[in-house]
Specification:
The chain is α+β, with helices and mostly antiparallel strands. The chain is about 25% helix and about 20% strand. The longest helix has 24 residues.
Length: about 220
């Protein structure tokens, strides 16, 4: 019984460690934001290749170092559809999408690269009715660069290299660190604000091992 109690205590400790946030390591990536009908920016819950904005919506893209979706920096320009798409008339079979691209500042730039002199670019994409967010972005900010996992890596040629690299707490990897996927909303497969899959999987493994240890201890008792 004592062994079971001791194992249970160790299990709780290990589970707490597994569930605790990692020592803040961030990611350098393009985050994706949406605004429906003039509302404030909201972090997108899916990638630009699957999002299908409506006429009058705005899409925002911000390059920055962020720890997770809750920490991500919004585009510095407002989702002002009326201003960005002023003078662009609605046409049958098409929709107008305001696009804001914020390249971030020097502190967010990858080693050896410099953000464009004009930090924020805006444009009004007039695309077909069923066009995706990625198509709207491509209409105003080519060239785009994606990786093999469909993560948006570069907009208008920036940055020229890299894609979602991890930046260690208190310092830059200098491009030499292990590439770790950025938060899911930067991808085209969806996203969310919950714990990472790695944390959940790790916690499940700890629970499974701990449960087996308790069972064995009880059999011995």
């Amino acid at each position: 019984m004592r062994a079971a109690v001791a194992t249970a205590g160790a299990l709780l400790t290990l589970t707490a460690v597994a569930a605790a946030p990692a020592q803040a390591a961030g990611y350098r990536y393009w985050s994706f934001w949406e605004s429906d009908g003039g509302k404030p920016w909201a972090y997108a819950t899916q990638g630009p290749a699957t999002a299908r904005p409506a006429d009058g919506d705005a899409l925002g893209f911000r390059f920055a170092i962020s720890n997770d979706t809750a920490d991500s920096t919004r585009p510095s320009a407002a989702p002002d559809f009326a201003r960005i798409c002023a003078g662009v008339e609605q046409k049958d079979g098409s929709k107008r999408i305001a696009v804001v691209v914020d390249f971030g500042g020097p502190a967010d730039a990858p080693p050896g690269e410099t953000p464009p002199e004009k930090r924020v670019e805006t444009g009004c994409a007039q695309v077909r009715d069923d066009a995706t967010g990625a198509e709207a972005l491509a209409a105003v900010a080519k060239p785009l660069r994606y990786d093999s996992a469909a993560m948006l890596c570069g907009i208008a040629g920036y940055p020229a290299r890299g894609c979602g690299e991890q930046v260690e707490a208190g310092g830059d990897t200098g491009g030499s660190g292990t590439k770790t996927p950025a938060p899911a909303a930067a991808r085209d497969s969806g996203g969310g604000d919950g714990p990472s899959v790695g944390v959940l999987a790790g916690g499940a493994a700890v629970l499974a091992l701990g449960g087996a240890a308790i069972w064995k201890a009880r059999r011995r008792g």
